[in-house]
Amino acid sequence: MAFPTPSSQTWTLRFKSHKTTVLLHVDPLQTFPTIKEQLYKALEETGLKDSDSEPIPLPISPSDIELGRPSNPNDPHKGFQLGEWEYPPLEGEDAEDLKGKGKAKAGRPKKSGAVGADSVKDCPKGAGLRDGAVLAFRWKGNGSQDDDDIEKADGRKADMWGVELASYEDNYGVENEMDVGGGREFEG
Hints:
Ubiquitin-like (UB roll); five-stranded mixed beta sheet; globular
């Protein structure tokens, strides 16, 4: 498999799990299954450890990896949610039942072999990601499904996907929280 050579046209995506961040150079139109293969290969070479420095076994195949996007890119403590590209396409009667009903009007198109509107959301650019975006990753059995979640202001729990947010204070004693790719604000 040929991975993109870093250039001015490639994007750098940050993949987080536990206290690990993997940086990958990807083409903005590269499909998520090939990005998962690239991530899997990087994890094979480096490994993944939990917060107790115990190794986490990799899944059987790259297709077992799930990717999540930040619930709110400007507030990492709101957790992550499964990316819309991870859901299987609706087919048959289910797709027809959703047509014409509110937000689900568009429904999910059936997958076809052709590249076009059917597969546009199956790449970072089509999914609305940007260069430098943060995605969480997990798979069944990697210890992230039943981690303690952070409580939201309204009393619900945020799904952190096993991601432990690093803080500047951890190393330097100064409070400055990490970001998950949201826009920067100018203060001045």
